[in-house]
TrEMBL record:
PANTHER family: LIPOTEICHOIC ACID SYNTHASE (PTHR47371), PHOSPHOGLYCEROL TRANSFERASE I (PTHR47371:SF3)
Protein name, per record: Sulfatase N-terminal domain-containing protein
Occurrences of domain Sulfatase N-terminal (ranges): 86-343
Main location: membrane
Localization per Swiss-Prot or TrEMBL: Cell membrane
Bilayer topology annotation: Multi-pass membrane protein
Gene3D superfamilies: Alkaline Phosphatase, subunit A
Gene Ontology CC annotations of this record: plasma membrane
Gene source species: Segatella bryantii
Signal sequence annotation: none
Keyword Cell membrane annotated: yes
Annotated CDD domains: LTA_synthase
Taxonomic lineage: Bacteria, Pseudomonadati, Bacteroidota, Bacteroidia, Bacteroidales
């Protein structure tokens, strides 16, 4: 009889520290967490992070890493017409370049032609929790763990949310699913997202699918709030979920069930952009569309195909200076530095995040899956299997990428251990 309350419910989420969070003040949230639960969680999650992925001595790893990380904005191309736009980040479940090439996402394709299209963007990982943290905190995903499940460590991370809150922005987060899934609420609140709309804020009749509330209702909720007269500029984040298996959506236009789900969310995107234009908020708006992780289409794809990691990133809205294509290579962790650089907000503490619009720094994409990592630059890429210590997929003059990727992963785990 006690299994359900111990587990924390019957949804996809289990009990975690974020379930106890209730306040905008983190010290009160920490006090609300059961000490016994916190101790038990610490014991089961105790890991020797500094002992993992030891490819080379520390001096050599530091030498290589110093040539890869650079938080400078020097030589940055300016693509916004204002330093304080209203910002809407839409995190798209499982979208990819492969899906866009099918023609199933005409609204997104239209926005790519009208806005700023980053042609060589890559997903950092294979799960939403990893991708969300990479997007919002500029922190790379890991191959065998999810940092979001370690609240004591994520509390030490910088984020777009924290920095924009300090700059006077008002923050909101919209999600149709369970905000406690994979400890997401704990992470979001620690990143200053205290106004969170999730499945519990909708009628029960609207949240009966596996992943909660269908995307069109979540977009509608945000659209209803667009006309609010804010005294602050806004950072609003909306996370979709309907284009996730089992791909059951209240919409039937395409025969392929998977592509139909993407077409449904794409339709929601088009209606949201129309609503934003009608709300008189468009002229000062920056809208960023970015998938949450690597793609799931076609169904036969595996982790060792480079195109699985290739995703679209589109910036649109009245605040952009006009249409253009950005050829720079990057991954989700680079969004934070790229955005904050445009706003002239310091991001020097986000050492893993690179400004994709700065010309004076090295550019590359880095990504991980269990238990492998990959790195891509212009004209070359490599995917490395950690288990058998072999290169699985490669292209171009890839050999220099192998020690670089190894050093990068090693120093990433050093950083995690130090938090």
């Amino acid at each position: 009889m006690l299994i359900i309350p111990i587990r924390g419910g019957i949804t996809v989420s289990t009990q975690n520290t974020g379930t106890a969070y209730f306040s905008e003040k983190m010290e009160l949230n920490h006090a609300a967490v059961n000490p016994a639960f916190s101790l038990f969680e610490s014991i089961i999650k105790e890991n020797d992070f500094a002992g993992q992925y030891r490819f080379m001595d520390n001096q050599e790893a530091n030498r290589i890493m110093n040539g890869l990380i650079n938080t400078s904005d020097k030589g940055m191309k300016t693509i916004l017409s204002t330093k304080r736009p209203d910002i809407y980040i839409v995190i798209l479940e499982s979208f990819s370049d492969s899906v866009m090439k099918t023609g199933a996402t005409p609204q997104l394709a239209k926005l790519a032609k009208e806005g700023i299209y980053f042609e060589n963007m890559h997903a950092n990982s294979f799960r939403t929790d990893r991708g969300t943290l990479a997007i919002l905190s500029g922190y790379p995903a890991q191959p065998t763990m999810s940092l979001m499940k370690y609240p004591k460590k994520t509390n030490t991370l910088p984020s777009i949310g924290k920095k924009l809150a300090q700059a006077g922005y008002g923050l909101k987060y919209f999600y149709g699913g369970d905000a406690d899934f994979t400890n997401m609420r704990s992470y979001l609140v620690s990143m200053d997202f205290t106004d969170i709309t999730s499945d519990i804020n909708f009628p029960v009749k609207d949240r009966l699918s596996k992943w909660g509330v269908p995307d069109h209702l979540v977009f509608q909720r945000m659209e209803e709030e667009l006309t609010e007269q804010d005294k602050k500029p806004r950072l609003w984040v909306l996370q979709t979920s309907s284009s996730h298996e089992p791909f059951d959506v209240p919409y039937h236009k395409l025969n392929n069930k998977v592509l139909n789900a993407f077409n449904y969310t794409d339709d929601c995107i088009g209606k949201f952009v129309t609503a934003l234009k009608k709300s008189q908020k468009w002229d000062n708006a920056l809208v960023i569309f970015i998938p949450d992780h690597l793609g799931c289409y076609p169904e036969t794809i595996d982790n060792f195909h480079i195109y699985r990691y290739e995703i679209p990133m589109i910036w649109t809205g009245g605040a952009i200076t006009g249409h253009q294509k950005i050829e720079t290579y990057g991954s989700q962790q680079d969004i934070a530095a790229t955005l904050l650089g445009q706003l002239s907000i310091d991001h020097s503490d986000m050492k893993f995040s690179k400004n994709m619009l700065a010309t004076s720094i090295p550019h590359f994409a880095f990504f991980t899956v269990p238990d492998a990592w990959g790195m891509a630059k212009k004209d070359k890429y490599v995917i490395f299997n950690n288990k058998n210590e072999k290169v699985v997929t490669k292209s171009g003059n890839y050999k220099s990428l192998v020690p670089q990727g190894k050093a990068y992963l090693q120093k990433l785990y050093d950083d995690i251990a130090a938090r």
